[in-house]
Design brief:
Layout: H1 2-16, H2 32-35, E1 48-62, E2 69-82, E3 92-100, E4 103-104, E5 106-118, E6 121-126, E7 132-138, E8 141-147, E9 156-165, E10 174-175, E11 182-191, E12 195-202, E13 209-225, E14 235-255, E15 273-281, E16 289-290, H3 295-304, H4 309-312, H5 318-325, H6 331-345, E17 347-348, H7 360-366, E18 368-369, H8 371-384, E19 388-394, E20 414-421, E21 424-428, E22 447-452, E23 457-462, E24 468-478, E25 484-492, H9 494-507, H10 510-520, E26 524-532, E27 541-549, E28 553-556, E29 559-562, E30 584-585, E31 590-599, E32 604-608, E33 613-617, E34 622-631, E35 634-643, E36 647-648, H11 653-667, E37 671-675
Parallel strand pairs: 1-11, 17-18, 24-31
Antiparallel strand pairs: 1-2, 2-9, 3-4, 3-8, 5-6, 5-9, 7-8, 10-15, 11-14, 12-15, 13-14, 15-16, 19-20, 19-22, 20-21, 22-23, 24-25, 25-27, 26-27, 28-29, 29-37, 30-36, 31-35, 32-37, 33-34, 34-35
Length: about 675
Amino acid sequence: MKRNLLISIILVFLFNVAFSQAPKVKFGKVTEEELTMKYYDRDTSADAVILFDKGELNFFYNNFESPKHFQFEFKRFLRIKIFNKNALNKGNHDIYLRKGNGNRETIKSLKGYTYNYENGKIVKDKISQSDLLNEEYDRNTDIAKCVMPNVREGSIIEIEYSILSDYLYYLQNWVFQYEIPVVWSEFIAVIPEFYNYNMIYTGYYNLDINKTEDKTESFQIQWEEQARIGYGVPERGYYDLESESKRYHLASSNIPAFKEEPFMASTENYIFKIEFELATEKFPNSPMKHYAKSWESIHNELITDDDFGVELNKNINKNLLETLILNSPDDISKMNNIFNYIKNNYKWNNKNRLFVTNSLSQVVKEKTGSCADINLLLVNHLRQAGLTANPVLISTRTNGVVNDIYPGLNKFNYVIASAQIGSTNYLMDATNTYSQPNILPLKCYNGKSFLVGEERFAWIDIQNKNISRNFVTGDFQIGANGELMGEIDFKSSNYFSIDIREKIKEQGSLDKYIDDYKNKNQNLDISEISISGLDTLEAPIQMKYSAEVENSIEKIGDMIYFNPLIYLLDDENPFKNEERKYLIYFNFPTDEIYIINYKLPDGFSVDQLPKPVVLNFLNGSIHFSIMYKQTDNNLQVICKKKIIRTIYMPEEYLGLKDIFNQMTAKQQEKIVLKKAVN
């Protein structure tokens, strides 16, 4: 008992202090106290905790490769404590290695152990070569997968590795925050004076250590003087290149787990991390090179790039294009004909690219390609048809928002097409069967995007302003014994209808979609179901069916209790947290109307009716109302719900939570019927 108390006291001390200096942790030296931890006291719900994470980055000069050049070595030491089976996947560690332009990052060294506590002893298992798997992630990245041995509940895993890299433009990023809490995270980078980097921070937490110090370094550089013809081998020697380098020491402690909240954009926008981007390079007796480009220079590079701008103005598919636009009465008709042809005849290979992977002529032959292949082909065809069309670089939602303060193509991961007709700019993505001009896949709505015009660039803000509507009507008969039967009719437009189309495609057929719908609504005995409008993309989808609604009415003696909105609306508030750090993103504006008619059973009348209500939040950006009308033996319920604005600030969260609480409460209120006394 005393021993357990002592361990608890030690752990509280270890994991609750605010560190002002780095803790002394050695690889291979885990403690009994760490192994016997049952939970992390700062977050007892955590499935695992990162006990220690340290990265070090240093430059060196490589005299052994041609051409000789600077490289950096990145070392990492990571230790994780696993509490339960939900975190066993933490025994799998992925190391991402960049490649391209004739170079690739390599692992210089790697070692790792899994520690378990057995019969009062520390037992460790070493990672072996067979535990390493290598695979290609994409054309610019490989992954070395490390599978730690004998990982189980209570294990500690630690891994230490180093990477050699030629990619000086983007140094190794350092992430302080993960989906599990972090006790200590530390990053040290020593950067020679010849290189100047922009340091880009994101996140909501502070650094315990944020020091920049001067450090004198000396790099040994081999020189070589070519011998004159016939005079033997060239002369070689070495000289020392001095540098007043900068040593950056960054550390943070007790970092909470990053927990996703409802209606969030990409976690990349909020994770606590730092990125390095090369701004300038200046060696002695050499002019300064500027790497931190301007958006103007990026635009100029794109329009002259063989795999981007040059492809946009080639004559491709000319005969087909003439046929597509032959009978088009106006430019909008031309645009729609070309867009629909490419959308319906080319298949996206699920790869996100900014540059074409094949020539557009080859894409025409193969009828498949990346988002760049397909959407740059769309721009090409629109231009050939005489329209003002340009590509637009975007960052999809999962990739994070674009920070335009630091110019760079690495901010983007996707390309779409635009066409300017009159005063309207139409945005298109031909990779998606169900998209329409200005109705893009939801992943594309992520704010600032970069339009690459033929002469100039422009920033456009891609926000989803298309209102998606649900119009629902129902006619139900309430039986004297508590049965509820009737018919219901849904009309869904825009993204509500796209969701249905995508689910039908995912299921493989309409019949399978209907079966899945029935299975997910076990409280409904559905019959005579029909779905129409699938053949016309612009039209709403209409779904009608008859159903007996089970377990929806409670009969107690001569009283009947029921929720008039039955299964149609939300039964709980998605916003449960007391506070919010992050922006709230609704996917798209919505307008929903529900009109439900009830015929009351003979001999019953309304005993208690909920009060009607009208709720508005922030000048009507969210609106909710519910009204009741009674005529003789008929009762009508009309519920309206609108969300017009899609983005809300964290300081608006409490008001947003409150109106959702009120809406949820009203949706759960019951009507009471009473049987008349004879």
